Amino acid sequence: MGNQKAFLEIHRQEAGYRPLHDRIHDYGEVEQTLNTRERKQQASRCMDCGVPFCHWACPLGNKAPEWNDALYKGDWELAYRLLSATNPFPEFTGRICPALCEKACVLNRFNHEPTTNREDECAITEMAFAEGFIVPRTDIRRNGRTVAVVGSGPAGLAAANALNQMGYTVTVFEKNEAAGGLLRYGIPNFKLNKKIIDRRISIMEQEGIVFKYNSEFSDYSEYSAVVLATGTPTARDLKVPGRNLKGVHFALELLSQQNRVLAGMDFSKEERITAKGKDVLVIGGGDTGSDCIGTAHRQGCKSVTQIEIMPRPVEGPDDPQNPWPAWPRTLKTTSSHEEGCTRRWNINTLEFLGENGNLTGVMVQEIDWKPASSGGGRPVMVEKGEPEIIKAELVLLAMGFLKPEHPQYPANVFVCGDAANGASLVVRAIASGLQAARNVHEYLSKQ
Ligand SMILES: Cc1cc2nc3c(=O)[nH]c(=O)nc-3n(C[C@H](O)[C@H](O)[C@H](O)COP(=O)(O)OP(=O)(O)OC[C@H]3O[C@@H](n4cnc5c(N)ncnc54)[C@H](O)[C@@H]3O)c2cc1C
Ligand code: SF4
């Protein structure tokens, strides 16, 4: 800890987003960066607490006090070494992690001005790439064992990378045409530029990992072990009348197609899903819904409304139900919400309405949640007022994903990431992939 009083003298400073009028017309990353002096100042605010709750809260156990100190002192190489000791892909989490660590930071408890760990992480990693600290290893000694990793999202990539570093010969099977899973085909480019994924895949390839695209895996017998990191392929549906109308889509249909268009892929007029000139209704109040809002704006929508069946979360930094250092389930306003959106809570969807097979609106109903009459159990939904119609030519269903069920696999098969735990976060997928790699190694060491 270089500057013992920094947390008293220097305020938290976020780099913030590009101005709204500038960013809304393109798919470039919305987040800006601080200059080197400001970044080091931010790193100096870390108090090197005796009990670092940030380290406890990060699923990867990232050592924020250590790398913040190295960053403050200007030793970027050491900072990257410390960071990459627990996190194989800090350039991903540095951009899109919700930063569980920052909510758990003691400074968040003290004055709601936690350290800027996530941005620090991104800055350290970008400097490490720019300065050539990250180069492919050429000294990996092979141990003669082969592992198939199925799925190339963050969980599969983390498992593949860790096993490759240990000397296993790793092949990654991916059913899509490129690697990254939801990093590439879910998260919009304005949050994560896909060149960031390509850069990391190139290093992994140079270190010996073979990626097989457009390729579903089936042969378990050929490999010493198999890691299944296939994510949560089934989105939650809304089976109300009118579901088959043209204009009702799953969020990922829009998001993945838009990311593919940006990667240069062509779609026919019939296939293309676009919000251009339309009133858009996003059903689901979470992050996927928010990504649909930002995408709809960039496609040139007329308006966006987001509805959520659950009540509006509490506002402000503290969540009485889930106090510090746990994650506060408070109202979150993203860069996409800032770009313009009507947000409503306690709204149930009754029916999709249309003309000539095309969606024209959605009948919704305001509701309330009352405690169950028995006193315990799930709250009961009660209708409030009259149903109403929200005009919409495009509906995006962003209501989460179903947790996959798995058969009993042979002992050499290990499931990780969202496929094992249900839909979650990139940082948790990476942590789960690393754990799967350790499990494979432990299993094969005994064979
Ligand atoms: C729209 C959206 C935005 C999100 N934004 C964020 C965010 O900002 N921050 C955050 O932390 N988290 C975010 N998440 C969650 C995060 O993306 C996921 O938790 C994470 O990607 C899960 O990683 P995974 O590797 O387990 O699965 P996935 O990323 O889903 O990857 C699974 C991969 O397996 C492949 N696959 C599936 N079946 C097969 C098969 N049979 N053969 C070969 N390949 C197969 C798939 O094609 C896919 O590439 C977001 C999720 C969505 C949907
Ligand atoms: S990965 Fe996320 S939770 Fe962990 S230190 Fe980085 S920003 Fe914080």
Low-confidence stretches: none
Task: State the secondary-structure class.
Answer: alpha/beta
- Span between N and C termini? 46 Å
Kindly state the number of beta strands. 14
- What profile does the largest beta sheet have? 5 strands, parallel
Helix count, DSSP H or I runs of 4 or more residues = 18
Describe this entry's structure for a reader:
The chain folds into three domains: 6-130, Alpha-helical ferredoxin (Fumarate Reductase Iron-sulfur Protein, Chain B, domain 2, Orthogonal Bundle); 146-233 and 403-445, FAD/NAD(P)-binding domain, CATH 3.50.50; 248-397, FAD/NAD(P)-binding domain. Helices cover 35% and strands 16% of the residues. It contains 18 helices and 14 strands. The chain has helices at residues 6-9, 20-23, 36-44, 53-57, 64-72, 76-84, 90-96, 100-104, 106-111, 117-130, 154-166, 182-185, 194-206, 251-262, 287-299, 335-338, 418-421, 426-445, and strands spanning 146-150, 169-173, 210-212, 225-228, 248-250, 279-283, 303-307, 342-344, 347-355, 358-370, 380-383, 388-391, 394-397, 413-415. Strand 6 (279-283), helix 15 and strand 7 (303-307) form a beta-alpha-beta unit. Helix 11 runs parallel beside helix 18 (426-445). The two termini are 46 Å apart. Bound molecules: flavin-adenine dinucleotide and iron/sulfur cluster. Flavin-adenine dinucleotide binds at residues 96-97, 150-156, 173-176, 181-183, 186-187, 191, 216-217, 229-231, 233, 255, 287-288, 291, 417-419, 423-427, 429. Residues 96-97, 150-156, 173-176, 181-183, 186-187, 191, 216-217, 229-231, 233, 255, 287-288, 291, 417-419, 423-427, 429 line the site of flavin-adenine dinucleotide.
